[in-house]
């Protein structure tokens, strides 16, 4: 009984992904077979080669059916932009993570340790702003960036993503700092350490798991974000590039599936590796 | 503050006819943008559709997520593998969820049809996404696919803190499995459920990526949600005034939805 339910879940989770994976190994000419096969017939790596910009060898190009395949290898630039775009995504993600972590560590630490005027308001406001979605804010941000002439630069994304990920990061880190015993700090203070020194030398090393989890979550968010990347830049990061595939003249699902598989490898790896940290952080971060 | 200023600006803009270049604010029209919306049938229909989509999404992902969490809380061989799998959909960006499902459900090459045919549930390939009756359900299903995994992970974290002895004590006292679920597990999970539901309300109402990838609001207007309408007003018709009014309306609905979720779930804690 329990195994049949479990199998059901596995199928429910895996089927869509499996189809994408198997399509990415299928030859474009074999894609329309009915009933749709579970397993690609004569699997090929050509889709990946094209998407990654590796030239397809002449003997693989069957004239007639695969002629498009041969041409796209050299000429179609938008298809094999995936590598470059992923580097952009990494760049944006890394900077967003750095900025968010610096700002949110200081903010979360002060929220966790001090009671200043308006600290409660600030905390509640942070939680509330997590609920206000980006969709509602896009027009003013768009206009700001336009006035500042930052549209279609990585900074457009870095600035807007940082402002969106900050609340989440602050909440998670505050909860994390709350759990760290205050004794350590008092000892440090007795030894004459300043607040910033305490934060740097005592708290940060202890808080590494929390920082990792927050960093990974922030990175995932900036990797996945589509709407802002779509309207603020010209396909600078991965999601809008993939969306651009959909409206291409010579649309090709096998190529798109290969690109999709490549695009989800980094987030999947990250979550697999840091799963424990992330789930704990999420559960605590949203638990308030 | 980075978020507060744009939020206020959105409200502000919604009161004006903003010129298409978005610089300056144009003519002050008081609440004309809102009046225009309230008199507009498309607006109301889209609101209802958004709420309907959100409801399907919330119920679907909570039920599936809860079931998955309960299942994973039991001990069986392969449990860790399944738990690892749960992360997989969640790691996919929303847009990619949309892309994956669009082609999975495709009426010509999709595997979904292939499975249904093999099971003899349908006799020939059917394009679910271009059928107005099915499109909304299928887009919601794709969104549920991702969200239910997050729900499961969060609820599972909650379940694992449930002290086993309470459960055992109740079963010694003769409580059946359903009674135990209702009187022990559910109350225990209520804080987690509240959080999850609030998250779901937001994700459900704001869903854009999946719709964009799967149907672009079609067929007809069968999957045009408020979020998609806002996108069109802003960036296709560059109608910032109306777009902002729509955005404010959407934020308002989300706020009410969130409040309803918190109120209903929290009240029951005290009972």
From TrEMBL, chain A:
The chain crosses the membrane at residues 90-109, 121-143, 155-177, 198-220, 226-246, 253-274. Keywords: Cell membrane, Membrane, Transmembrane, Transmembrane helix, Transport. GO terms for biological process: transmembrane transport. InterPro entries: BP-dep_ABC_trans_perm, MetI-like, MetI-like_sf. It is a multi-pass membrane protein. Residues 86-274 form the ABC transmembrane type-1 domain. The keyword Membrane applies. The keyword Transmembrane helix applies. Its main location: membrane. Gene3D superfamilies: MetI-like. It is found in: Cell membrane. SUPFAM superfamilies: MetI-like (SSF161098). One of its GO terms (cellular component) is plasma membrane. PANTHER family: INNER MEMBRANE ABC TRANSPORTER PERMEASE PROTEIN YCJP (PTHR32243:SF18), MALTOSE TRANSPORT SYSTEM PERMEASE-RELATED (PTHR32243). This is Unannotated protein.
TrEMBL record, chain B:
Gene3D superfamilies: MetI-like. Pfam families: BPD_transp_1. GO terms for biological process: transmembrane transport. CDD domains: TM_PBP2. InterPro entries: ABC_transporter_permease, MetI-like, MetI-like_sf. Keywords: Cell membrane, Membrane, Transmembrane, Transmembrane helix, Transport. It is a multi-pass membrane protein. GO terms for cellular component: plasma membrane. The keyword Ribonucleoprotein does not apply. Residues 47-261 form the ABC transmembrane type-1 domain. This is Unannotated protein. It comes from freshwater metagenome.
């Amino acid at each position: 009984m329990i195994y049949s339910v479990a199998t059901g879940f596995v199928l429910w989770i895996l089927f869509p992904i499996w189809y994408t994976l198997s399509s990415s190994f299928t030859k474009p000419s074999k894609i329309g077979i009915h009933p749709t096969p579970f397993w690609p017939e004569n699997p090929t790596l050509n889709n990946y080669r094209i998407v990654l910009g590796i030239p397809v060898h002449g003997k693989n190009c069957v004239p007639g059916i695969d002629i498009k395949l041969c041409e796209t290898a050299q000429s179609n630039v938008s298809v094999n932009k995936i590598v470059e775009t992923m580097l952009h995504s990494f760049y944006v993600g890394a900077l967003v993570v750095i900025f968010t972590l610096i700002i949110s560590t200081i903010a979360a630490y002060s929220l966790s340790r001090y009671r200043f005027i308006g600290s409660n308001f600030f905390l509640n406001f942070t939680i509330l702003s997590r609920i206000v979605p980006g969709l509602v804010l896009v027009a003013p941000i768009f206009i700001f960036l336009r006035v500042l002439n930052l549209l279609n630069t990585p900074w457009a994304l870095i600035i807007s993503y940082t402002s969106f990920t900050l609340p989440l990061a602050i909440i998670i880190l505050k909860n994390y700092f709350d759990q760290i015993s205050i004794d350590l700090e008092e000892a440090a203070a007795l030894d004459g350490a300043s607040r910033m020194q305490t934060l740097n030398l005592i708290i940060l090393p202890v808080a590494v798991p929390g920082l990792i989890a927050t960093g990974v979550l922030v990175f995932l968010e900036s990797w996945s974000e589509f709407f802002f990347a779509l309207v603020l830049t010209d396909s600078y990061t991965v999601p809008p590039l993939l969306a651009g595939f959909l409206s291409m003249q010579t649309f090709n699902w096998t190529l798109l599936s290969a690109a999709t598989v490549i695009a989800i490898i980094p987030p999947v790896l990250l979550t697999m590796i840091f799963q424990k940290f992330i789930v704990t952080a999420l559960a605590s971060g949203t638990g308030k | 503050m980075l978020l507060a200023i744009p939020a206020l600006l959105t409200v502000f803009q919604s009161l004006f006819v903003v010129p298409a270049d978005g610089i300056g604010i144009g003519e002050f029209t008081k609440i004309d943008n809102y009046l225009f919306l309230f008199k507009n049938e498309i607006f109301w229909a889209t609101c209802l559709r958004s709420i309907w989509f959100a409801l399907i999404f919330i119920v679907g992902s909570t039920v599936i997520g809860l079931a998955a969490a309960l299942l994973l809380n039991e001990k069986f061989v392969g449990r860790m593998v399944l738990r690892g799998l749960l992360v997989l959909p969640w790691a996919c960006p929303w847009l990619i969820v949309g892309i994956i499902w669009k082609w999975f459900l495709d009426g010509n090459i999709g595997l979904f049809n292939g499975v249904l045919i093999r099971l003899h549930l349908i006799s020939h390939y059917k394009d679910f996404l271009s059928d107005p009756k099915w499109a909304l359900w299928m887009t919601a299903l794709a969104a549920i696919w991702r969200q239910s995994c997050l729900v499961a992970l969060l609820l599972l974290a909650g379940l694992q803190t449930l002290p086993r002895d309470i459960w055992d004590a109740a079963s010694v006292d003769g409580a059946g499995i359903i009674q135990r679920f209702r009187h022990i597990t559910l109350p225990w999970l209520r804080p987690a459920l509240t959080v999850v539901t609030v998250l779901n309300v937001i994700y459900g109402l704001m869903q854009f990526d999946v719709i964009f990838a799967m149907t672009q609001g079609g067929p007809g207007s069968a999957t045009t949600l408020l979020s998609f309408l806002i996108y069109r007003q802003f960036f296709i018709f560059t109608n910032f005034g109306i777009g902002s009014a729509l955005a404010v309306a959407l934020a308002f609905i989300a706020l009410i939805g969130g409040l309803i979720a918190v109120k209903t779930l929290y009240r029951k804690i005290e009972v």
